[in-house]
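Q: What does the predicted 3D structure of Deoxyribodipyrimidine photo-lyase look like?
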Amino acid sequence: MSVALVWFRRDLRLRDNPALQAAIEAGHTPLPVYIHAPHEEGAWAPGAASDAWLHQSLQQLDADLRARGSALVLRRGDSHAELQALIAESGAQAVYWNRKYEPATQPRDAAIKRGLREQGVHAESHNGYLLFEPWELATQQGGPYKVFTPFWRNALGRWRLAALTEAPSRLPGHGLQGLPLQALQLAPRLHWDAGFWAHWQPGEAGAQEALDVFTDGALNGYREQRDLPDRTGTSLMSPHLHFGEIAPWRIVHALERLRSAGRDADIDGYVRQLGWREFSWHLLHHFPQTSDSNLNPRFDTFAWAPPRAELLGAWQQGRTGIPIIDAGMRELWATGYMHNRVRMLVGSFLCKHLRMHWKEGARWFWDTLVDADLANNSMGWQWIAGTGADAAPYFRVFNPVTQAQKFDPHARYITRWVPELAGLPVKARFAPWLSPSLLAEQAPTYPAQPLVDLAQGREAALAAYHRCR
């Protein structure tokens, strides 16, 4: 039987894997390989939290393959060169993979496909990551969308879910040797990620468990509870989606089976969030500069404040003196994750109250989030800053105190992540600087004043916006 390399990348699963399925259906013996090549990711090589998750996910994928008689072959180096070496060692006649869509990896993959075909090796790529390819949906004029609502309307009009495919029960052995996982140097040496794994289970089984927990629990009332950070009101599927441990269409299939008169609104609300993921990749494909540059060029002259290391460091460490901001940044450091509503608040505070460039926040999230995704990260920060497509207007400046009072009314989220404030009355935990004596008595280690007066920070941001306009 002929051999085909199945090149795993951002599709670390055996179910619903179009590349693996195509290799099997073509009659090949699949040889699963993973090539570690962060230098080929351009300026956005994966961050430390992503690497920590990847280590765990590769370990789980290898275990899943071994349980079926195969194994994952690990290599590191230049992708094309390593594929050539694997072809020579195995006699493979074909290479199958699922597409990646980052600006740095798309041209690389196209060059690899051309090179393989020129030497007579069958090379085939598939969509294993998205509901729609980034180039599939276009405006009536044939251009890309910059506004979500018409994009999503078009998507729903062309809605066709891929069929589900189960993992093969057995796979042939291959005997090819690779590197030990430790050689990829993904796991942190100082084990600063130890706290992550009380919250997460990387791998395909962990993804399915997270989906089951969501459909049994947080899906009920999702639209009302998804903005409340003090409870599990969201799916927590984002890192599993990012690493391709579950296909988005499997999630939708699972939700569609649960439709009833009382759940349709929650299901539609969640599927719409998957639509934002699709929209972000659509934007990055058509506007690849948006990971580093403003999509709206008007903001190229915006008067960002000069970088100040002490302010940025206080924001990163959760020492701003504003409890909801500090709670979010501490949650991020402890778990590799932050609730979406709080992401908007910490981003708005950085970009507007402190008036620091959105790239400062994007880089920090990129290094510390386990679901760091170039398209979502870029779109999210530009949305917050008001510089991107379908963005929040720059003059919309979230007040973190009133937002906390609205979405964390009992200060449970604040108290969990900023426990030194637990001795204060609930009302004082939202703006403790307004109760200075009580703060000094109950939480002497917490900042006595916020980094910036919220009213003054807002006015400075609006003044800079008006000058730019």
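A (community wiki): The structure tokens above were generated from the sequence. The longest strand covers residues 29-36. The chain has three domains: 3-127, 130-162+206-286, 297-468.
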